[in-house]
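Here is a complete protein record:
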Amino acid sequence: MVIARGQGIAYADEGPYERDSLGVLWKRIGWSPGKGRPEFGRVHFLRQRRAMQKLLCQVCGGPSDRTPEGTLWLVEEDADDPGRWKPGDVTTHPPLCVPCAVASVEACPHLRKQYVALRVRAFAPAGVHGALYRPGGPFPVAYSADGVPFESWQIRWVLAGQLITEFHEFTVVDLDTEHAAYLANGR
């Protein structure tokens, strides 16, 4: 149960590990590593946050692919705005290893339509995405879901579900070329 506490929200029975080091309240979710099947479009909140923080592959949980050119990320390309990715853009999708990136493009209906592969050299956590609450009677009321920058006053009123990363420096790369280099290097 989410309650109002001070100038924000809290769990009525909040434990010591439900907030991050910045005091952001995170959604509760079960954790059963190695069980279940991928559900495209449904994000496991804890797995997403861990993959973003430790730069783990969002599919297999191993290390993401990192080269001197940067960490490998796949992002959806907007068919109405191709080439829109620019420094300052953000994503909630963690990085990938090359084999999982190739498999993802084949398996994920969203990526199959259009994607961009990026080698990101400079990036930083920028905020969280989650349910926004406001005061409302005896309990706070969820009214929207959106991204909230860490520096926003709304950060105390969000029940976070995903970590947002901002890209500062990156290069668009060809995934087929990345895959060929991966195979040639015997990785």
